[in-house]
Structures are given as structure tokens and as C-alpha cells.
């Protein structure tokens, strides 16, 4: 991750420099991602593609020891700065990426050569290095009728206080050895199973300097017309200890340990497909994985695309129009603001290590990265990705509401045994996900709020599709119009908020004054913020980023 001023600097930089000559070093990887292959070529001796088999297998096979060994190896390269040594066999980014590539080769050999290792290579000056390679592995889908791919990504690079310091110790054990170990472990395990869609595992270079590796991949798939179903980014997913400057809206106080909570970040408001993907991942956890795990996890659907002023490798994909989200631990050891003279936390420093040897016997006995926690996050990620990779077609639908009764008609070219309807009111998560056996549904919705509705199909194995984009079902009892002209100010979501709050305006007709604003007032009536909002018929939204540890009661009103 990186902080906002870095992003702004890089954006201006990019007018003159951008990634060029983007290729996969293995042509087979490109052919498969484009859907130009015979799936039979990559069949294993037995096709294992039942959801129960896959989720059981993932839950049993993801190993904390395996994750720890990858994390230790990644740390052993001393630094993985994008501009560091590419020649040495033991130190620097070159040795690190060759090791990851070798792991992908090893997993492929163990699984009938089904996993196709490659690098995504591109040219760009990053910290003095002109050419870069992100290790990747492609697992071909067994059904090319819809050849959209699923990407499971991390960033392999690490850094110290100075962005292009290529000689300092930068083990990057949590940022982002944790996410990279997760991606390697999933390449190992998921290549034992068969998925309808192709899955791409990639550990991106150049994240710390400006999300360059992820942007190169997003450019590449767009230029090659490769459709993407979902992107799951993993960045800082193993740390459990709260630092002094933990990233908002994370942990408090310093020293707090949390190994049972996970944050899912994504872009956009009520109709955003990114938040739909996040809700889907959480639903698959609750319904498929939770019944078989020993330690239940609390998963939060976050309001913002990332923590305040920060970003990650899911963002270039969203900017290119693809559906993308990010996994991040609840507790972070720092906010990565190493320019702050009082900064004493671990992120983006030589202190981002796996843990400490407290008794001097040469063995780490006190861990900053908790590998049981990382294993839980790995299984959550894999379950969501796997269900998206074997699930059926996302349908379209219409909804009409009379009083509290909603008529929902699901429109899909294929008949499915079941359909699901997700209903949401005041948070970004569903209140309830209903199941029906007919695509023509009449149901009573809760009458005291606005309901957001989305639908999915369910196949014969009980796997649901990704959900459609939401539509709003306007129910009476949502309060009086803000100005007597059919403009309604709805309750903010979530409320209480995390670090950002979505303020929603509903209008039941086309309005004359489309440019409006939301004013945030404190309890003395002083204006804290004025947010512009463009009004359209139906739902319009504005995000209020109030940052970390803002507390108290705030008021808002709309004007035009
Ligand atoms: Zn990171």
C-alpha cells in the first residue's frame, strides 16, 4: 500500500512514462487467458469440481506451516524492492521472483502440468530498473463457453522508509509477504481442483511505487480483450498486532491483538459490483466454510475502496472497469507514513519482520505475522474465489413494488433449480438472503426503510452466481421529503460509520436542480464539510470520508 501524496506524485509522473512492451513470457499463459485452448488438454485424471469437495479440500489443505515457510523464504531475500538486484541468486527481487516462479513450476509438476507458470513482463523505469517481471501461474478452466478469468493477486515487492532504497533490509513480512504467501499457497492447493473459469495467480511488482505491476496486468488484459469476472487482492493479511499509528479505521489501542477479524474493501456505492463481490465472498464464508471451521471469523464489508489516503493493487482493475476488491487484516502495525518524524511502527521499514527471537536461541518465538490467522484468511479468500469460479450465470431482473409487496422477475436464458434474493437496508451487507424455486417471486419487504435488492441463480450443486447489480425498492416510511419536492434524505450507511459514511438521497422524479450538496454540521450547527452530489431520479450517493477515530454526532442536510 502507499499513501496519497505518493499516488498524486505518481499520477503526474505517468503522463510521460507508462508501462510498455507488456507480455507474458510464456505464450501458453496468454492463449489460455484469451480462451484459445482445448480444456481437455488440461484435464486431470479425475475432475474434482463439486463445491463440497473443493471447500472441504481447501479447509484441510491450507497449512499455517506452509504459509510460514513461504513467508520466511520471501524474507530471506533481504529486500524485494522493485529496483533491487536481479542477478544475485540469494538477494533481491530477481532471486525472489525466480523462487516464486519455481514454486509454480513445482506445483504444476505435482498436478499433471495443469498450472502454467509465466511472468508478466513490462518496461518502465522504477527505482532505476527498466524492466520488471511479476511471477504468475494460470490454471485453465474446464469450460471455455464463458472464458472470463478470476485473478488472485498480491504484491511481491517491499520497501523501507526511502522509496527507492534498494540496499536496506526490507523483509516486508506482513506488507506483503503475507499476501504473497497466501497466493502461493492457493496456487498449490487450487491446482488440485477443476474450475469452470480460468484462475490467474499473480504476485505483482512495483506496487509500492505506484501500483505499476497491477496496472500493467490491467492494461494487458484490456488490450488482449480478456474478460475478468473478479479480482481478489491480498495485501497485509497476516498481522495481528495494533501499532501506534494503525491505519484507519483499524485497531485501537496500541498493542491490541486481533486474529478473528478481517476487512474487505471495495469501491463504490449501492449499485457497485465491487461491493456485490465483497458481499458474495462474505456469504460464501458464512454458508460454505463457517460450518466446518474451528475459529469463526468476523468479516467487515468496509465503506471505502481502501483505508483513508491509501490504496492497493485492486484499484487499477476497478479503474479499468473490472470488478475488484481487497482483503486486509483488522489490525495493522502502522499507517505506512514513514515521512512522519514520530512514526515508530513497522510498515515500510526494516522492522516489518515475521517476529522476534525473545530468548536468544535463534528461533522466532514471538510473532508479528500470525500464520493461523493468515491460514484462516487464505481459506476465506479461496472459498469465495472457488465459488465464483464454478458458479452459474448472473441473471438480470425487474422489480416493481406495490405497498410493501414486491414483484421480482428474474430474467435468465437458463432455467435453474433455485434463485436467491439479497435484501439490504442500512449497511453494506445483506440483512437477509432469501431462496426461491421460481424466477417469478412475490415477497413482502420490510416496510420501514429503503430496501436494496439483488438476485442470483443457484445451480444443481447449490452454488450461487455472483449477484446482479442492486436495484432500489422504494418503500413508504422513509421520512419526509427534504424540501417538499419529492427529494428524500435517507439514513447514512453504515451508521455508526467505519471511517467513511455513504449519504444517500432518493428522488421519485426527475429534478430541475441536478447539482446539489450535502452539508455536514456538528452539534453546534457549524459546517464541517460540504459534499457535492449530482441528483438523478432514484438513488444518488455521496461518500463522507471522516477519517479515523472521528466520533460524536453529526447532522447533515441537503440543498441545491
Ligand atoms: Zn502492501
Short description:
The chain has 560 residues and is α+β, with helices and mostly antiparallel strands. The protein is 23% helix and 27% strand.
Can you walk me through this structure?
With 560 residues, the chain is of the alpha+beta class. The chain has eleven helices and 26 strands. Strands 2-3-4-6-5-7-11-8-9 form a nine-stranded mixed sheet, sandwiched between helices. Strands 17-16-19-20 form a four-stranded antiparallel sheet, with no helix packed on it. β23 and β24 form a beta hairpin. α3 runs antiparallel to α11 and α6 crosses α11. The N terminus is likely disordered. Bound molecules: zinc ion (ZN). Zinc ion binds next to loops. The site of zinc ion has 7 residues, from loops.
Kindly name the structural category: alpha+beta
**Radius of gyration, whole Å:** 24 Å
* Amino-to-carboxy terminus distance: 37 Å
Low-confidence stretches: 1-16
**Portion in helices:** 10-25%
Overall mean pLDDT stands at 89
Assembly state of the chains shown:
single chain
Largest sheet: 9 strands, mixed
| Bound ligands, named by name, code or SMILES | zinc ion
Keywords, please?
alpha+beta, 11 helices, binds zinc ion, 560 residues, single chain
Describe the secondary-structure layout.
Elements: E1 2-3, H1 4-13, E2 20-24, H2 27-33, H3 51-61, H4 64-76, H5 93-110, E3 116-126, E4 129-139, E5 149-155, H6 177-190, E6 199-204, H7 207-210, H8 212-223, E7 228-234, E8 261-266, H9 273-289, E9 298-301, E10 310-311, H10 315-319, E11 324-329, E12 355-356, E13 366-367, H11 371-390, E14 396-402, E15 405-411, E16 418-424, E17 432-436, E18 440-444, E19 451-458, E20 471-473, E21 487-489, E22 500-507, E23 515-521, E24 527-534, E25 538-545, E26 555-559
Parallel strand pairs: 5-6, 5-7, 7-11, 8-9
Antiparallel strand pairs: 1-10, 2-3, 3-4, 4-6, 8-11, 12-13, 14-15, 15-18, 16-17, 16-19, 19-20, 21-22, 22-25, 23-24, 23-26
Helix pairs in contact: 3-11, 4-6, 4-11, 6-11, 9-11
Bound molecules: zinc ion (ZN).
The site of zinc ion has 7 residues, from loops.
Amino acid at each position: 500500500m502507499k499513501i496519497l501524496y505518493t499516488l498524486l506524485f505518481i499520477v503526474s509522473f505517468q503522463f510521460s512514462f507508462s508501462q510498455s512492451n507488456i507480455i507474458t513470457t510464456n505464450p501458453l499463459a496468454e492463449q489460455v487467458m484469451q480462451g484459445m485452448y482445448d480444456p481437455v488438454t488440461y484435464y486431470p485424471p479425475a475432475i474434482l469440481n463439486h463445491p463440497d469437495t473443493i471447500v472441504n479440500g481447501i479447509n484441510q489443505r491450507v497449512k499455517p506451516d506452509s504459509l510460514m515457510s513461504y513467508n520466511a523464504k520471501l524474507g530471506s531475500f533481504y529486500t524485494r524492492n522493485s529496483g533491487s538486484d536481479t542477478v544475485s541468486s540469494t538477494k533481491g527481487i530477481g532471486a525472489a521472483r525466480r523462487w516464486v516462479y519455481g514454486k509454480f513450476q513445482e506445483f504444476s509438476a505435482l498436478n499433471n502440468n495443469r498450472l502454467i507458470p509465466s511472468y508478466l513482463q513490462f518496461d518502465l523505469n522504477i527505482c532505476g530498473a527498466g524492466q520488471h517481471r511479476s511471477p504468475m501461474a494460470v490454471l485453465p478452466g474446464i469450460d471455455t463457453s464463458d472464458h472470463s478469468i478470476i485473478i488472485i493477486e498480491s504484491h511481491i515487492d517491499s520497501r523501507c522508509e526511502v522509496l527507492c532504497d534498494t540496499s536496506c533490509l526490507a523483509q516486508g513480512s506482513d506488507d506483503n509477504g503475507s499476501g504473497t504467501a497466501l497466493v502461493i499457497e492457493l496456487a498449490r492447493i487450487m491446482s488440485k481442483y477443476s474450475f469452470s473459469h480460468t484462475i490467474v495467480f499473480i504476485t505483482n511488482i512495483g506496487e509500492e511505487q505506484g501500483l505499476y505491476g497491477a496496472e500493467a496486468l490491467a492494461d494487458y488484459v484490456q488490450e488482449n480483450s480478456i474478460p475478468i469476472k473478479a479480482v481478489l487482492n491480498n495485501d497485509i493479511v497476516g498481522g495481528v498486532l495494533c501499532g501506534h499509528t494503525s491505519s484507519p479505521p483499524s485497531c485501537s489501542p496500541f498493542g491490541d491483538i486481533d486474529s478473528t477479524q478481517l476487512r474487505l474493501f471495495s469501491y463504490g456505492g449501492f449499485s457497485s459490483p465491487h461491493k456485490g463481490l465483497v458481499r458474495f465472498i462474505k456469504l460464501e464464508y458464512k454458508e460454505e466454510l463457517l460450518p466446518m471451521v474451528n475459529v469463526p471469523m468476523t468479516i467487515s464489508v468496509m465503506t471505502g475502496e481502501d483505508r483513508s489516503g491509501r490504496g492497493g493493487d485492486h484499484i487499477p482493475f476497478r479503474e479499468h472497469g473490472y470488478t475488484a476488491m481487497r482483503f486486509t487484516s483488522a489490525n495493522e502495525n502502522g499507517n505506512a507514513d514513514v515521512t512522519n518524524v514520530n512514526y515508530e511502527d513497522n510498515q515500510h521499514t526494516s522492522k516489518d519482520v515475521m517476529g522476534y527471537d525473545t530468548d536468544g536461541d535463534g528461533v522466532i518465538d514471538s510473532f508479528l505475522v500470525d500464520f493461523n490467522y493468515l491460514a484462516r484468511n487464505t481459506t476465506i479468500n479461496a472459498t469465495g474465489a472457488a465459488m465464483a469460479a464454478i458458479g452459474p450465470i448472473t441473471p438480470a431482473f425487474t422489480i416493481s413494488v406495490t405497498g410493501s409487496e414486491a414483484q421480482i422477475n428474474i430474467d435468465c436464458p437458463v432455467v435453474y433449480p433455485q434463485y436467491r434474493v439479497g435484501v439490504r437496508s442500512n449497511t453494506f451487507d445483506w440483512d437477509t438472503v432469501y431462496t426461491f424455486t421460481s424466477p417469478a417471486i412475490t415477497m413482502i419487504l420490510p416496510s420501514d426503510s429503503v430496501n436494496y435488492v439483488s438476485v442470483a441463480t443457484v445451480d444443481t450443486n447449490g452454488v450461487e452466481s455472483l449477484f446482479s447489480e442492486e436495484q432500489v425498492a422504494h418503500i413508504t416510511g422513509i421520512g419526509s421529503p427534504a424540501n417538499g419536492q419529492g427529494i428524500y434524505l435517507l439514513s447514512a450507511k453504515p451508521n455508526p460509520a467505519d471511517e467513511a459514511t455513504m449519504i444517500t438521497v432518493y428522488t421519485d422524479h426527475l429534478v430541475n436542480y441536478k447539482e446539489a450538496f450535502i452539508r455536514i454540521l456538528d452539534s453546534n450547527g457549524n459546517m464541517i464539510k460540504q459534499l457535492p452530489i449530482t441528483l438523478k431520479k432514484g438513488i444518488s450517493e455521496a461518500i463522507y470520508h471522516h477519517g479515523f477515530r472521528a466520533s460524536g454526532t453529526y447532522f447533515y442536510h441537503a440543498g441545491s
